Amino acid sequence: MGPQTIVVFGTGAFAARIVFDIAATAAQPVRVVIAGRNRERLAWLATASAARAVIFARPAAFVAQACDLLDDDQVEAVLGTERPSVVVQAASVQTSSVIAATGDAWSRLVAEGGLSATAVFQAVLSTRPPGCPAASAMWRFSRTSSPRKAG
After folding, report:
1. What is the pTM of this model?
2. In degrees, to the nearest 5, what angle opens at C-alpha 93 toward C-alphas 92 and 97?
3. Which fold has domain 4-144?
4. Any residues with CB less than 8 A from the CB of 12 and at least 6 apart, and which?
5. How far is CA 77 from CA 14, 23, 72, 138, 140, in A?
6. How far apart are CA 48 and CA 34, in angstroms?
7. What is the pLDDT of residues 70-106, one digit of tens each?
8. Domain spans of the chain?
């Protein structure tokens, strides 16, 4: 059996931290699929993660997969094709450029209150509200799928 597969949804700083840490610490072979809507960032994350895995001599492979988490069919396609052992939801409906902006009331709130002020934008993709296809697809996948076992 091949390496375990992890799907990380997201291309922002949180997703980067996760995939970079996997690249530096993987003790067993792992295949990490980074899925998100920002194609340029996806390509960079996969390349940078793979480079880190080489630098740290870790058995981790990284691939990019374009996917809009607000599109039920795209999320189901990624999960159905990859059949991951682990799914990490690190995406947000709010882009990091909005969080990093300055000069408006929202920027001041985030600066003063911390990133927890933006948690709702990430949580909306992790819960099952009506009309949130990604959450529905992930929930259905968890109910109908048995992950690949370590071999």
Report:
1. 0.73
2. 80
3. Rossmann fold (3.40.50)
4. 41, 90, 91, 92, 95, 96
5. 23, 25, 9, 11, 12
6. 12
7. 888 898 899 999 999 999 988 876 666 666 666 777 7
8. 4-144
